[in-house]
Amino acid sequence: MVEAALRGVVRAALEHTAAHGLPGDHHFYITYRTQTPGVEMPPFLRERYPEEITIVLQHQFWDLEVGEEDFSVTLAFGGARHSLTIPYAA
Predict the structure, then answer these.
(1) pTM of the predicted model as reported, rounded to 2 decimal places
(2) CA distances from 17 to 4, 33, 34 (A)
(3) Nearest CA-CA partner of 76 in 52, 37, 42
(4) How far apart are CA 82 and CA 74, in angstroms?
(5) Which of 17, 36, 47, 79 is deepest in the core (most CB within 10 A)?
(6) What is the pLDDT of residue 72?
(7) Distance (Å, rounded) from C-alpha 88 to C-alpha 79?
(8) Model confidence over 6-49: pLDDT tens digits?
(9) CA triplet 60, 14, 16: central angle to 5 degrees?
(10) Could you give the CA distance from residue 81 to residue 14 in angstroms, rounded to a whole number?
(11) At residue 84, does pLDDT exceed 90?
(12) Any residues with CB less than 8 A from the CB of 77 and at least 6 apart, and which?
């Protein structure tokens, strides 16, 4: 029950961010397990982070879309933009 509630908090915070952006210097650190079914990420990132990765949503993120079971976002890695899809279960 606690995990489901916490996933709901993450989803609500991301929904607010998608609609209104992040105020000031606020940011999110999101750590997820890279091998969870449904995670979509570039192969080079999965090779570098085979178990888990922490991403930061702060100044440079694009295309944040929040769904019931997952969210997607575009982030810059090494100067190039890459899309990620992350289930809340990850």
Answers:
(1) 0.90
(2) 20, 22, 23
(3) 42
(4) 5
(5) 17
(6) 97
(7) 26
(8) 888 889 999 999 999 888 888 889 999 999 999 999 999 999 99
(9) 100
(10) 20
(11) yes
(12) 42, 45
* Closest residue by Cα to residue 11 from 26, 23, 28: 28
Q: For residue 6, what is the DSSP state?
A: H
Token pair for residue 63? 């295309």
Q: Which residues contact 13 (CB under 8 A, 6 or more apart)?
A: 28
pLDDT at 90: 93
* Per-residue tokens: 10: 């993450």
Return the pLDDT at 29. Answer: 92
pLDDT tens digit sequence for 57-70: 998 899 999 999 99
Residue indicated by tokens 């000031």: 24
Picking from 63, 36, 68, the residue whose alpha carbon sits closest to that of residue 49 is 36
Tokens of 3: 């995990």
Q: For the chain, how big is the Rg over CA atoms in Å? A: 13
